[in-house]
Amino acid sequence: MYKAPRGTSDILPQEQGYWRYIEEKASSLCQLYGYERIDTPAFEDARLFIRTIGPGTDIVEKETYTFEDRGGNPITLRPEGTAPICRAYIEHGMHNQPQPVRLYYFASIFRYERPQKGRFRQHQQFGFEALGSSDPTLDAEVIDMSWQLFASLGMGHLSLLLNSIGCKLCRPNYLERLKEYYSQHIPRLCPDCKQRLKRNPLRLLDCKKPSCHDIAESAPRSVDHLCPECKEHFENVIRHLSLLGIPFEKSHRLVRGLDYYTRTVFELQPRGEEGAQTALGGGGRYDDLIEELGGRPTPAIGFAAGMDRIVLNMKQQGISPYPPETFRVFVAYLGEKAKAESVKLTAELRRAGIAAISSFGDRSLKAQLRHANALGVPHTIIIGEDEVGSGTVILRDMTKGEQKPFKRGEIVHVLESMKL
Ligand code: AMP
Which domains does the chain have, with CATH numbers? Predict the structure, then answer.
């Protein structure tokens, strides 16, 4: 028996309401803030991600789905949404548009991770990016927007964590301080952190192992090593967030998983549940990324939320999406002539905007009503030979079990007015 590949899942019809709900709330939020939708391919040239995410990161080293296509081209299934958007920004000359360019997306993301609750090999992200300005008000806008996303979904009990990890000028000095500090604690570090110390020291700070936690808590803080420009930028982000009334907590251990971040980084987590599996969304500035990809210097900031985790969290918090459209009509028939009539009537109903399902085959009325019941349909139309002869139909209220005849020519109109 085939099964969905490990770390993937089917989103069955009964689950779809959650997804449509999030998509609708997210799209209208973007519309309110002046963001326009963009869709990029599900796969890109592998080098785009190695270059941008960083050769030493977990994502590039262990998690990408990378292969050669039949033409020998290196391909990677999209492991995140930002790099493809930067590629598109450059490719389509978006620097000629009024800056910042505000874009949003829904995208399937592929990462070869160890599957567990809230961590899958294919997941869906909703994200937005503002490209072309380093103004701290834009940081505040993007952070505000991510906060409003969860507010509009009715989700509470969230913490917004905020940090600044500096720029390419001040970060090298900070990394030196960090390495000096961690070098004194090598014997107590977990094996992963021993590697991180050599290859990606910033990630030492967000190790989830309890033994490394205490060491990270007392580590030098990036905010204490910012250059004057980054310091002022961070202070302004904080000032604007306070102005907007967004409740945030500074977290000096927040660094994010990708190499390209500069200055502001932030994450939204369910309150009291710190950890990599629980972040509902996160983002930050990436002021050098577009230039590194061959574009003009273009500071930018973005955010992405994991939709699968939002669905899990909505369920935990007892938040229901919109109820599905329930007004549907089942059309049952008895005999050949009535069958032809039912096909015609079903089409008429659909054209009038009423969801209708026609029966099939050659079954008893009892079997057809059982079918209608199993579908949860509130109304069934019954057409038999007599009804065809007299130009009528029978309308059955499935909840009450009551039946009433109507003229064939009037039934569509009757149902239309019942739907209102
Ligand atoms: P990231 O680009 O890793 O910051 O991911 C952005 C958001 O996507 C995270 O905050 C999670 O909500 C979600 N996410 C990341 N990786 C996974 C995964 N493997 N499975 C499910 N959701 C994920």
Answer: 13-170+226-316 (3.30.930.10), 329-413 (3.40.50.800)
